[in-house]
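INFO  loader      accepted 1 record
INFO  loader      residues=583
INFO  predictor   begin
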Amino acid sequence: MYYFRWLLGFLHLLVWGSIILVHAIPAPDPVQCNRTICTVSNSYGAWGDRKDCSVKSVVYPTTEEELRSAVAHANKNKLKVKVVSKFSHTIPKLACPSSLGHDSLFISTAKYDSGIEIDSVNLAVTADAGVALRDVIDKVEEAGLSLVAAPYWEGVSVAGMISTGAHGSSWWGKGGAVHDHVIGLSMIVPGNESEGYAKVKQIGAQDQLLNAAKVSLGILGVISKVKLSLERGFKRSITYNFTSDSSIENNFMEHGKKYEFGDITWYPSKHMAVYRYDSRVPMDTPGDGINDFLGFQSNEILISKSVRASEKLFESTKSVNGECTLADTTLWYKKQIGNGLKNNGQIFTGYPVVGRQGKMQTSGSCLYSPKTRIDASCAWDPRIKGLFFYESTAIFTATKFVDFIKDVKKLRDLKPENFCGIDHYNGFLIRYIKASKAYLGQSEDSIVVDFNYYRADEASTPRLNQDVMEEVEQMAFFKYGARPHWAKNRNLAFLKVQSKYLNFNMFIAVKKQLDPENMLSSEWSDEILFGKEGVRSDGCALEGLCICSEDRHCSPSKGYFCKPGLVYSEARVCRYSPSSSNL
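INFO  predictor   done
INFO  writer      dumping tokens
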């Protein structure tokens, strides 16, 4: 047994340690077509309901006028429309236009990705909708400027990034949400016949429409250009402090106030919190470091498959100890290599790591590859059958987050090892975003919590300790009223979401004004926006498509029954037990 545990730990170490000189195969195009039909998928290879999203055709405009013409064609011919970029990292099925397929059109911005204009005098950058975040950052940095906010993952387009509320971490200045740095955009909306069936609408910083348009979920119109505010170039200094989680509920507020870009990663099973001390420093501060976050580096395909095989083994044998071994090894290795920070661009030699904002604010090196390399990829690339997981992201008001932490600790203290399945991914990532004027943004300073966990290959397969993840999920969204991140989460997180946004009705009013025929909406975007619950079918709770109210919503044939939560008693979770009469 000791040898097996050591071998498994070493294997997991190799997953992360072998990436130093590895480059990934390019990510697949999210739109794939044959002679009769086109299908869009997200980067994980599966939507929440695991059903394909198909349409008859896709267009690839290269200019704003071609983009307007595509919208006009769809409007004239009464087609449903959805826009997809070259990345497609949204988890909910927002990009799917219709279940019918034949009455729909995909518009891909993959080739509308070259326009980047820097205004050094007014400190602004304007980019075409399909431009990759990394291309914008590099261009901005070349001009001696910096984009202040960015999501941690750089595999996004500028339009997709703002449309779903992507964010980094900051309570300072304009805050960590990228949309709060938007000072203008162009949006193509349906028009009447005299307007050529579509028109380009310019929305400036003082236009009230901007509050709706900058987090629009793609259902108000088709964004063609985005204008973002900039600052003079600066560097950042980052140090990670691995320490006890004993006072995390008392420390998180002060941490967000003290460090401009700070965050906290919490590993409940290990009773550990990792505080990120992250602040800007002058440009003449020595250092040329980069942030090459471990989870976004390339993995050799064979190793990714091996880790997935190990996870499946632990799940099928209900080996909590195996999951805890993975968690121990991952956390130890993260500590040794600074979680992917590199002092000179190659290796980690110690704290602090200082580098330019453009090299420190976001990462995603697994996206890039020389064409000669075919044996590595992002760990979740669906073509290799590597990691496959859920991502839950809850946004709390700061005052309620204290009690959420206390409740999670109570649940953890019942059996700490039950949290290893979360901790061997990335624990709970705690970030900060500021109050926003965006109608679908946050109305007050907030705390964002992300956590990932195993997803089975088959929808009907229950997961080890899934009741723990479900109780935390329901605790966040229903007991404490957290708001779901629009681009992440399982469907149940969006139940009654409209009641959580003070300006929701104002957003709907703009939607009716700009797209009165609902050309850009679908049953799936309505399900998310209006918080509708899907059909309550057998096994629906296993995938987060419903909250169980009967045993059949779980998997009674495999020993999983619908039970109350252990700490949050109003939760209803699928728990493994010998019979439905037991806890």
